[in-house]
Design brief:
The chain is of the alpha+beta class and 482 residues long. 50% of the residues lie in helices and 9% in strands. A hairpin with a 4-residue loop joins strand 1 and strand 2 (21-24). The longest helix has 22 residues, at 63-84.
């Protein structure tokens, strides 16, 4: 069956959907030559790069991921309103009692939980008491997430391992990871399947989501290497707002009328067949309509406003969703991994990519020769940097682009001064631009006075009457502890 290569020898990778940012645990020389151009790399390296790049494609073309990204984008607007409406801000914001700041923190947590519901449910899987004859059956169940105040309905599947059945939640990332991992394995193994690949993700392990669709395909279509069948099924599921439910529809359709899967042409016919199932087209059209509405709102922004940069992302999303609607085989292209990557980058661009085995020494690259979109993705990363650090830390930490990607004349100034301190030239500083976008450049680091702290304590208790000394004593205690 050929040698099986493991990308673990190079480390791993990750994709952050809020920042449109890839991180690869590789050495820069594994990916780029001395002229900073993509070099001929091993299939293991290319498989890892394409795995994470496909997560970017999924984020800009799948209804469920687009919804999460746009919710995050809308939250940034709310944050700007909160910052601009507050005269003083003490850091970290988690210790700030102002009601509007507490709402900001709660909103951040809610969106983080929403992302967890879509991407990461790494909880121990439940063992089923049903007989083994129930294997591969679908059922509905609600799941409670960490930090969540409510349960989330989820489609599950009973997946066998040995003589035991496990209840596996079919979260959206099961299909995102299934698609990316299948393509990565195809490249790493040069198209030669081996069941030993599944040993990387045993059913009881947290990362079962990487292989759950592959296991189902192997059980039902044993005679065919599963790489592109799995990718096709996962891709079709990701065209809807509920991929787990869509998988149950696809499974029922394929079992009732098994497709011929002898060659590449058969796979292309399978993809067309899947894409015509309801509600794929309806959900894609609904997503495209929402993107068009948002594009219209952002089109009013001036060229130096962050909304104009965000619009570049929305335009990429519109082109990717359109491709899904009208080209069922839009990601089926030459098997050469570099050609595949170049093809997609030329159409949909690329996110920023941090490459390095130690985060502090990462070098940030753009895989696309597109300076405008590069600035947009840098802005997304900087905005997230500010929002997250403002909650957790007593000041904004140093710019994530310093020193390798710093394009500002201020240089080391960023490392020892707040973002909002006066600088001689902020035109090229993406962190200053991000701070301006969030209205964080208006904030100082001065702590609240005793009177202000007592006042916000009083507000947080719904303005009780006749008990003001309680708030005053609590304020004295809080400030003494700080």
């Amino acid at each position: 069956m050929g040698d099986i290569y493991k990308s673990e020898e190079y480390g791993g990778g990750g994709f952050n959907p809020r920042q449109l940012f890839i991180h690869l645990s590789l050495l820069p020389q594994d990916v780029f030559d001395i002229n900073n151009q993509l070099r001929p790399a091993t299939n293991i390296v290319w498989g890892l790069i394409l795995h994470e790049y496909f997560h970017y494609l999924q984020t800009i073309s799948s209804p469920v991921f687009i919804t999460v990204f746009n919710n995050w984008f809308g939250y940034q607007t709310d944050v700007a309103k909160i910052f601009s409406g507050t005269t003083k801000t003490s850091f970290p914001l988690a210790n700030n009692k102002a009601p509007e700041i507490q709402c900001y923190i709660q909103g951040f947590q809610t969106l983080s939980d929403e992302i967890q519901a879509v991407y990461d449910i790494y909880t121990p899987l439940q063992k089923s008491k049903l007989p083994m004859t129930s294997a591969w059956e679908f059922f509905d169940k609600s799941i409670t997430l960490a930090n969540y105040s409510r349960t989330v309905p989820m489609k599950y599947m009973l997946v066998p391992e040995g003589n035991q059945l496990f209840e596996v939640p079919l979260i959206p990332s099961a299909f995102a990871e299934g698609m990316s991992t299948s393509i990565q394995w195809y490249i790493e193994t040069d198209g030669k399947w081996s069941d030993s690949l599944l040993d990387s993700y045993p059913v009881a392990a947290p990362k079962i989501f990487y292989s759950v669709v592959t296991r189902w395909v192997i059980h039902h279509f044993r005679e065919t290497p599963p790489f592109w069948i799995v990718a096709s099924i996962c891709d079709a599921c990701l065209c809807t707002y509920d991929p787990g439910h869509m998988f149950s529809i696809i499974a029922d359709d394929l079992i009732k009328a098994p497709p011929s899967l002898r060659n590449t042409e058969d796979i292309l016919l399978l993809r067309s067949r899947l894409q015509n199932l309801y509600p794929i087209r309806a959900d894609l059209i609904k997503t495209l309509t929402r993107l068009n509405d948002l594009d219209g709102q952002l089109s009013l922004a001036g060229p130096r406003e962050a909304a104009a940069d965000m619009r570049k992302v929305i335009i990429r999303m519109k082109s990717a969703v359109t491709a899904r609607l009208f080209d069922h085989n839009y990601f089926i292209h030459p098997a050469n991994p570099k050609d595949m990557l170049s093809h997609f980058v030329s159409i949909f661009g690329a996110p920023l990519t941090g490459i390095g085995q130690v985060n502090a020494e990462d070098q940030i690259y753009s895989l696309a020769d597109d300076k405008e979109f590069e600035r947009t993705t840098m802005l997304l990363k900087a905005i997230f940097h500010i929002m997250e650090d403002s909650i957790k830390n007593d000041r904004i930490s140093p710019c994530p682009f310093y020193p390798n990607q710093c394009k500002s004349t201020q240089g080391k100034y960023c490392l020892s001064n707040p973002l909002w301190a006066p600088i001689s030239n902020s035109a090229g500083c993406v962190m200053a631009y991000a701070a301006f976008t969030l209205c964080a450049h208006k904030k100082g680091l001065s702590p609240f006075t005793l009177q202000e702290t007592a006042y916000f304590n009083w507000l947080s208790r719904c303005n009780p009457t006749g008990d003001d000394w309680t708030d005053w004593f609590h304020a004295e205690q809080e400030l003494s502890e700080e």
